[in-house]
Design brief:
Strand content: 15-25%
Helix content: 25-40%
Number of helices: 15
Low-confidence stretches: 1-9, 13-48, 307-318, 386-392
Structural class: alpha+beta
Largest sheet: 8 strands, mixed
Mean pLDDT: 80
Distance between the termini: 64 Å
Shape: globular
Number of domains: 3
Length: 416
């Protein structure tokens, strides 16, 4: 007898999470950033890793509430959850449950989705609400999400800064970049490009401290170094979780986020729900990241009016709006010859999606080859995987002609 397939309940987040490829961006002018609605897919971690069930999830959640409830009111405040997110002693499945509780308390999870129908996500930061969870849409959705966090956390990862202590440059590789559940593709694509072309930028930026913290000094802002606490299991499950070559990638992600919160304007909107730094930098400017990482200039080129060769205009904000001609291809080639950081974004069009590219998403530009149709550029998705779910690094890279990119691309940022 054929079994009927029942779709699992899932959570829906409000930032550009790497949960699935089903991203739909919406603008939020009050925050000054872009946020997205993302429907996660049914958890697949249980197929190859031990996962939580609802009873275990509830037991661990209640234990975490007892552990972090400083005012003994039977519930965790947002600040209490944030404090626990920085506790390196919370490990394993406890960290997966904590990460889920954090995403709910910080409003990063807003809805439960069942067979396409959307429901408000119930709070899970109090004993009363945890004990009300049943094996229905909300309970199972939270279990699925926690298991997905656990799946990411349990990926093969060296807990050293660099797996090759003698030569860190051997450990700084683009393959370590796997964007997590924060909308920071603009950062991750630049980090992957730096790892591929200028790994010394990353090596020279990070200083490992004796207490397990890290001090990171960006070349583009040497007067404002930042010190971050040691990475927790909850952070490694939610964000860039590192790789077999070390923890340098999540260290750089957390340090960039801390820099923008401490010295920039992120996380300062009074209407924002307090979040960890990595969530405060969802959506941003790849040009600014390029300048911060390299200490050199960068320009953003918009793919507009390319059907009028030879015309170039300049916006008041110094963002170049260019047309398609041979000079544009030369700009990219010049940047590549300098090993400059280059990233690209795509339009919100069916044509771009049909070609296998995600709209409003930043890609590393790893290479350029002169030739017909303006030459060919090689792109890498910071997700580290393609839409088909393959974990192959080869699948993360795609080639596209310059002519096609001018049709479906939105922008390109190049160091100079």
């Amino acid at each position: 007898m054929e079994m009927q397939r029942i779709e699992q309940p899932t959570v829906q987040t409000n930032d550009r999470s790497r949960i699935s490829a089903q991203d739909v961006l919406t603008g939020n002018e009050s925050l000054g950033i872009l946020r997205s609605q993302v429907e996660s897919q049914p958890n697949t971690a249980a197929a190859h890793l031990p996962g939580l069930d609802l009873i275990d999830f509830k037991d661990r959640a209640n234990h975490l509430i007892d552990r972090g409830d400083g005012d003994h009111d039977g519930a965790l405040s947002n600040k209490e959850v944030l404090k626990m997110m920085q506790d390196t002693d919370i490990k394993g499945p406890d960290a997966d449950v904590l990460a889920t509780m954090y995403r709910v308390s910080s409003k990063r999870i807003e809805h439960i989705v069942v067979n396409g129908e959307k429901f408000d996500a119930p709070d899970i930061t109090s004993h009363d609400n945890i004990n009300k969870l049943t094996n229905d849409r909300s309970g199972q959705a939270y279990v699925n999400f926690a298991n997905e966090v656990g799946d990411r956390r349990q990926q093969p990862t060296s807990r050293e800064l660099y797996s090759d202590h003698d030569n860190p440059l051997n450990s700084i590789r683009k393959e370590a970049i796997h964007q997590g559940m924060s909308g920071d593709c603009y950062l991750e694509s630049n980090l992957a490009d730096a790892a591929d072309k200028k790994p010394e930028l990353i090596r020279d930026a990070i200083k490992e401290n004796k207490d397990g913290s890290y001090t990171v000094t960006f070349k583009g802002d040497v007067e404002h170094p930042v010190t971050i606490t040691a990475l927790t299991d909850a952070e490694l499950g939610l964000f860039n979780g590192g790789s077999p070559t070390g923890l340098w990638a999540p260290v750089m992600e957390k340090a960039y986020a801390q820099h923008e919160v401490q010295f920039g304007d992120r996380g300062k909107n009074p209407d924002d729900v307090i979040a960890v730094p990595q969530d405060a930098v969802a959506a941003g400017d790849p040009e600014g990241v390029s300048i911060l990482l390299s200490g050199k200039g960068a320009a953003t080129w918009r793919m507009e009016e390319f059907n009028k060769p030879g015309q170039t205009t300049y916006a008041e904000d110094h963002v170049h709006r260019i047309t398609y001609d041979q000079a544009f291809a030369k700009k990219i080639q010049d940047a590549m010859e300098l090993d400059g950081l280059v990233t690209a974004g795509f339009q919100d069009t069916d044509e771009a999606r049909a070609a296998g590219f995600t709209d409003m998403h930043s890609y590393s530009v790893l290479g350029y080859e002169p030739g017909p149709d303006g030459g060919t550029i090689t792109l890498r998705n910071p997700w580290g995987i393609r839409e088909d779910g393959s974990q192959s690094e080869e699948k993360a890279e795609q080639k596209i002609s310059m002519q096609q990119f001018m049709k479906i691309g939105e922008s390109l940022v190049a160091e100079y």
